[in-house]
Specification:
The chain is an alpha/beta fold. 40% of the residues lie in helices and 14% in strands. The chain is built from 9 helices and 8 strands. The strands form 2 sheets. Strands 6-5-4-7-1-8 form a 6-stranded mixed sheet, with helices on both faces. A two-stranded antiparallel sheet has the order 2-3. The radius of gyration is 18 Å and the shape is globular. The protein starts with 6 loop residues before the first strand and ends in a 14-residue tail after the last strand.
Length: 272
């Protein structure tokens, strides 16, 4: 790592607004996150337009607006009114890990929506996107290794029906633990100075189960409490792995906890 630089950890809670996080903290479901926030500065930042996952995370990591990136979501306009196509590849502009990698920083990226996985000075695990026969990891050998290990590796959570909320929360909790496990393993192999880890399980559950999540803790649903605890434990394990690799000093690097956009109840739909 270059001299006179500070190791940096970026942890993303996809789509989680402060009021939702504060409610879970107040219920005692996020003790590690609560401890981190007590010693941190926090604030509200404006998201991008449109405030959705793909352009928001890309803008955060590149410093460019969605208009400059020409990136608006999981689909792109075809030039014909009302016609869109699925985006096949995602790789616009340079991200912070590209720039720092050229300066000698080792980097690790977990669950960022990029296909194919870009070559970086370290490792990169794509997420949230269908494979489409494109490389999902860098180095490429990591893909088969992750799938064959205990727990496997999913690019995204599977779809669950309206009556399968217990299964959805259980799968999300296990997915959070698996991400933390992978970070622990790869931190000891690649030793990144910049580590980005995105927990997208939060956004996926909120899309389908917002009404249940927002009623916690008034309604003490054990599945939701277990999910919050799984998120808290994954957050703690990632931080611990990163800081122990840097000598064990929790103040030996900077940690950012951030989200890409807020969330709320759906009031209606419109189609173009």
């Amino acid at each position: 790592m270059p001299v006179d630089t500070e190791r940096t950890l970026l942890i993303g809670f996809d789509g989680v607004p402060w009021d939702l996080l504060d409610a879970a903290i107040g219920a005692g479901a996020l003790p590690h996150v609560a401890e981190f926030l007590r010693g941190s500065f926090r604030g509200d930042l404006r998201s991008v337009e449109p405030a959705v996952t793909i352009p928001a995370w890309y803008s955060a990591m590149t410093g460019y607006s969605p208009a400059t990136l020409d990136l608006w979501g999981f689909t792109a306009p075809t030039g014909r009114p009302g016609r869109f196509r699925p985006v096949e590849t995602y790789r616009p502009r340079e991200a912070v890990w590209d720039r720092l990698g050229r300066k000698g920083w080792r980097v690790g990226v977990v669950n960022f929506p990029a296909l194919p996985a870009p070559p970086v000075h370290g490792y990169f695990l794509s997420g949230m996107l269908p494979e489409r026969r494109l490389a999902t990891t860098h180095p490429p050998s990591l893909a088969q290794r992750l799938r064959s290990e205990d727990g496997g590796w999913d690019l995204d959570l599977p779809e669950f029906g309206p009556g399968e909320y217990r299964e959805a929360f259980d799968r999300a909790s296990r997915s959070l633990g698996r991400k933390a496990q992978v970070v622990e393993t790869l931190q000891g192999e690649f030793h990144p100075d910049l580590l980005f880890v995105l927990f997208s399980e939060t956004d996926r559950l909120q899309h389908d189960h917002w009404d249940r999540i927002v009623r916690f803790p008034q309604e003490r649903d054990p599945w939701i409490r277990c999910y919050w605890k799984a998120l808290d434990e994954a957050f703690h394990r990632v931080r611990t792995a990163f800081h122990e690799d840097g000598g064990g000093d929790p103040d030996g690097g900077m940690t950012w906890l951030l989200s890409d956009h807020g969330s709320g109840a759906t009031e209606g739909y419109f189609f173009t």
